[in-house]
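Before we proceed, please read the two lines closing this message. Tell me what the token row says about the fold.
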Amino acid sequence: MSLVGKKAPLFKASAVINGMEIVENFSLEQFIGKSNVLFFFYPKDFTFVCPTELHAFQARLEEFKERGCEVVACSTDTEESHWNWLQLPKEKGGIQGVSYPLVADTAKTISTNFGVLAGEYDYNEEGNLIATGPMIAYRGLFLIDKEGVVQHQVVNNFPLGRSVSEALRILDALTHFEEHGEVCPANWQQGEAAMEASFSGVSEYFSAN
């Protein structure tokens, strides 16, 4: 399921913000009209690839903020699990120092609505509800613009870590198009020449949204 070109699903959930504070009813709606959002899912707390990604986004967090983009992460772990992981130093496998919000999708509805939940519910012969998979999120990443529309998404399987540089490149491309009306070719980097759109559909779409 692709969400590109559609409004990002709305949600309210508990989250840990500033690496310390647990809040209820966290929502991406607070950023609409103010900033873009890089919203990414990771499978589980206290794992191996996941902390490398969370630290990588933290290391370049100011680059996102300078571009007017907030970074928010989410997994199906509880807010208490997030909090405990945030207290553990990096050298011990923790994510201490990560300051952007970590959303707790304990009901698994956010992952489901964004199309990144692995596994499904089913019933066994006794009529008991069982899970047919791990019921955790794939490595989904969504760039959501100021109007709440998804402009980019990528979903990786569990073993495949993502590129923070590529996320920044896509953000730069979106910003360039919004500011100059020029489209960005393959491997385009900030500061390089872009291209004028040869059809009106692109500009009409963005002006309508």
